Amino acid sequence: MKPKVIVTRDIPDEVELKLKEYFQVSFNREDKVFSNDILRKAMESADGIVCTVTDSITDELLTLPNKKVKIIANIGVGVDHIDLQSAKENNVIITNTPDVLTESTVDVATLLLLSVTRNAFLVEKMLRQDEWKGFSLTENLGVDVRGKILGIVGMGRIGKSFAKRAHEIFGMKVLYYNRSPVKDLTFEASVRFDLDALLEESDVISLHLSSDKGNKNFISKSRLKKIRPSSFLINTSRGDVIDQMALTDMLAKKKLAGAGLDVFINEPNVPPELRQLTNTTLYPHIGSATHETRTKMGMLAVENLIAFFNKKQVINEL
Ligand code: DGY
């Protein structure tokens, strides 16, 4: 008999077809986030679950006495919504989908980079509200990124790829914060072991921190204060790596030039104080949101399930 798999959110058609080939599958046609109760039932009735960032896979679920689930294949690279320690202790395999989403996430970091430095939100808003007074040599000016310093915090796959693109395509100088120099870099970049030094020196800071619990509030209020008022901040990793309230306050008081954010604390509830700021570009967590990438992510999650149930090496076990 085919193993039973429950999918927590709507998924691309191609991924659905592939799943049906190998498993007895239950889909979430409404695409409404499962309640804890429904997740509990899923843990007790399925052999495998396909989930994503909107599902909290807690210790409570992983320690259910009647738990049946043996593998949870997450569609997404970040797994801060899953209690990995508890999964390990309770023999549930967790997999994610790295690599396939790197370039589309870098595309969004690039959009944010150009958008905040050229006031894209503000100028478009002005035009759409019919407030454009006409071409001017001195109005609506942004700043060039060429020759400016990009400070990368988190030199993993996405951080590295964004740094490379910013350097090679946009002519930015790259600094990165790390405990030791990254060895396999194919472009020029200088390491800073002191985060405050990187924050002070950079014209644009881009966060690519992993979603480990230890990175919560990593860019704290006191660290935000190290950033120069003329500098910009970009975040495509997770909302809670920054003190979001302190960031909002600093942006409102123009103590930072601008911020480009694709991720927030407690999504989708972005506070009105942040939404009303015009020196920001705010996207609804779309880093990997292209048809091609979402299909690749889904297919990789399915490959992980297939490998597991065929007793083969799981590709992306955490
Ligand atoms: C990721 O892959 O981590 C994206 O943020 C979606 O979860």
Could you walk me through the main structural features you see in this protein, from its secondary elements to its overall organization?
The protein has 318 residues and is an alpha/beta fold. It has two domains: 4-98 and 291-309, 3-Layer(aba) Sandwich (Rossmann fold); 102-282, Rossmann fold. The protein has twelve helices and twelve strands. The strands form two sheets. It has a seven-stranded parallel beta sheet. Helix 11 (272-275) links the parallel strand 11 (258-261) and strand 12. Helix 1 packs parallel to helix 12 (291-309) and helix 5 (102-117) crosses helix 7 (157-168). The radius of gyration is 21 Å and the shape is globular. Bound molecules: (2R)-2,3-dihydroxypropanoic acid (DGY).
Quick recap of the structure?
This protein has 12 helices and 12 strands. By secondary structure, it is an alpha/beta fold.
